[in-house]
Amino acid sequence: MKVFAVVLLFAFAYGATIPEDQPEDVEEFQLPDFVKTCYEDDPKLGECVKEAVSDMMPRLNNGLKALNIPPLDPFTIERTSLEYGNGALQGAIKMKNLKTFGMSQAVFRDVRMKIEDGKVETEIDIHFPKIFMEGAYKADIKFNELKLHPKGHFNVTMTNINTTHHWEGHLVPKNGHQYLQIDTFDMIPEVGDMKIYVGGIFPDPAMNKIAVNFLNQYWPAFYKMLLPETRSHWQPLMTNSINEFLGRVPFDLLVKKRE
Ligand SMILES: *[C@@H]1O[C@H](CO)[C@@H](O)[C@H](O)[C@H]1NC(C)=O
Ligand SMILES: *[C@@H]1O[C@H](CO)[C@@H](O)[C@H](O)[C@H]1NC(C)=O
Questions:
Q1: Res 238: pLDDT
Q2: Which domains does the chain have, with CATH numbers?
Q3: Where in 23-74 does DSSP place strands (E)?
Q4: Ligand 2 pocket residue status of 193, Cβ below 6 Å
Q5: Whole-structure pTM value
Q6: Which positions carry the signal peptide feature in this UniProt record (predicted)?
Q7: CA distances (Å), 60 to each of 2, 129, 181, in order?
Q8: Over the stretch 141-198, which tens digit does the pLDDT of each residue have?
Q9: What is the sign of the dihedral through the CA atoms of 174, 180, 184 and 185?
Q10: How many angstroms is it from 160 CA to the middle of ligand 2?
Q11: Distance (Å) from CA 78 to ligand 2 centroid
């Protein structure tokens, strides 16, 4: 049961990132006109960045070609996988055609940013009213002597999500621009409510229903336990994906040094 919660958690973490097979030709580009410019020495830098990013969000819906950003809603990940092992429990999960809806409704509640000697510290408070995720999964699970090979469809509806992203990074010169590269990433998403459906845990529909009810009843406990336990999986993935995104958007187009 635990492994399914890992899948859901992981999918949520990974759902907020960019797939890796995007073109790299970002040498000649400009930010679209609607993006506001901020200045490094602005005492309200965080506020400015918040407005710039909030302006950008609704337009990410169809993807932003100029920035090589794929559509946010739905955000599709063709394939992803996760291995999990902890004592008696071993699991490998493959997910296919994972679609996430609702990320374009993100509300940036607050951004705090500090730039000093090329080091950039950022905290971003984000609220998602609702995230719906669905996909196909296939798993191999070993629990002591018990072996399960469930597969099927799953979906998760999460509502009232608050999260704070903590980024620590530094500026890197490339192609005559400064890019932000993050060295550490952390987040602790708080989820108001979660409704989970997983098909195929057990072939028998009645048994499956019991398992699904169990998941829905105890999701807060699973979630609370699994978020830190799976951190070592999603943290480097998120860091890489965020850096992939940041590697396409010159930071000095968004946050300028005063001439
Ligand atoms: C999740 O999938 C199940 C089974 O396909 C379906 O009955 C249910 O309506 C789906 N949930 C949502 C919120 O779409
Ligand atoms: C998220 O923040 C809002 C506003 O501060 C609050 O009303 C809501 O209960 C929070 N949700 C969770 C899951 O803590």
A1: 81
A2: 2-256 (3.15.10.30)
A3: 38-39
A4: no
A5: 0.80
A6: 1-15
A7: 34, 17, 21
A8: 898 888 989 999 999 999 999 999 999 999 999 989 999 999 999 998 999 999 999 9
A9: negative
A10: 6
A11: 32
